[in-house]
Amino acid sequence: MQSPSRRSNASQGSAQARGRIIWDCSYIDREPWRATGIQRVVRELGEALVVEGRRRGRDVVVGSLGGEAVGPTVWELARIPRPQDKPLGVPRRPLELSRDDLVFVADSSWHLGLSYRLAPWWLEGMRLAVLQHDVVPLTHSWTADEGLVRQFGLWMLEVGTFADGVVAVSRSTAEATRAMLARTVPWRELAAERVRVCWLSGMHARQPSAQRIVDVQSGPVVAVGTLEPRKNYTTVLDGFEAHWQAGGSVPLVIVGRLGWRANHIGARIEELVQAGRPLTWLADASDEKLWRTIMGSRALLSLSVEEGFDLPSVEAAVNGVPLILSDIPVHRELFDGYARFVGPGDASALAALLGEIQEVGITNPPTHPLIVDRTWHDGARELLEILDALPMDAAIRARWRERTAPGADGHPGPARHVTPPLVTQLVARARVLVRGGLTGSLARAVAAQVRAPATRRAVFEVAQRVDRLERLLGDLESAVRESTKAQGRLLEDTYGRLEALASLEALSEQLVREVADVKHRLGAVEAPERRTLAPELRERG
């Protein structure tokens, strides 16, 4: 197989033109009942992309590439006939990857480490692109769960290191992504053509005009979204409380479940309801109930401190519902001249606007936002053009090969380029996994008491493999110590962190397989032998 880096530009373009687009929906595959904004985008845009690809003679395969989502790693997935297209309702067929494919990570698959799983094909020229919904966990980390902040930070390292291109859902998200990648991977300059913009759509939520209640001036203002810090419900409640205390009577309906760091918001809502305020909380509304509520409202309210696209507001605008929005970049980008804007922390401005709405009502201005007429098929066609034009970045692959090539001492490259603090932490975690699972000495003790020759040989083989894993961990620790002495703080770079993670992640996967294998083999030992082994196993932990 000829290396992609040696092919001419013309031949690369030809390969890209006939290669497939693999539309990754690993998170939906794992939790198909999810109906968040991101999952709705993945379903709607994915369905449209399959149709538009077929019209253009392009093969768009909807697949799940995540190890946690499907059980085996992607290498196993590529070899077995797994049906992977169920989430989007398109024909199911086995998935076999090729270096001519383009894998497009559209789902919130940040936890799956797809770049490592796809490494063999990526190094041979398979292109990798991602749909960037937002960078809120990093730019507004106080609004997110701590675990998500850490995981999303690692994901952005992956994107900056491996992705051939990024498709952002709005211009403001694209700008934030460029800025974040410039800080995360300063050694790689992602050119403007590698961070593109493709607006989404709200057209699938268009309701028949008959469902829009004509006289909605007595209806509520509706806020939609999970109760969590980013949605800024504190300012929403402050504004409405000030309005009610001043004698106002505009009702508020909140549609959204209780999320993270929001118990105090849920308690406050319940107190206001008990106090007789015109407030309703629908924590588990069906889609039908949600749309009945929105279509009968005076306006949709979204005071988020940050959004990537704000799909509910787009869907409401598609149906002619007036909007009250926080004055943030993405809202200005999509709805400038259409929505009424309030500073995200300005509760007094919200209270004043509510008083105005009660007196004179709220109507749509004559300005017509362009996003209202955009369909999912418009977005799919634009996305196809972006992906078809996306070049394979040969330079970054060459850099990766250089940095991961074995040294003269035979140690793998990442062991010579790691960041000491992170690796020390990860090695300690790996050792806990080894000691907590099955050590080589325990395996040999077990094997010595097993009468079945085949089982005894198998356990001895596993013991030897576990011993090799422990030696590799020791080598990695030694390499870290030597690197620390020789390079010190010079090794505190982002690339080293990612390489260390890649090395240990592969090691952890191998360890898990070894432990599972020995558990399976021990399970085959006859009952009398298991009773004989029980005291020894208890003694050794």
Automatic annotation (TrEMBL):
Gene3D superfamilies, alphabetized: Glycogen Phosphorylase B
Organism superkingdom: Bacteria
Keywords attached to this entry: Coiled coil, Transferase
Molecular function as annotated in GO: glycosyltransferase activity
Pfam families: Glycos_transf_1 (PF00534)
Domain Glycosyl transferase family: 221-354
Keyword Calcium on entry: no
Entry protein name: Glycosyl transferase group 1
UniProt source species: Acidimicrobium ferrooxidans (strain DSM 10331 / JCM 15462 / NBRC 103882 / ICP)
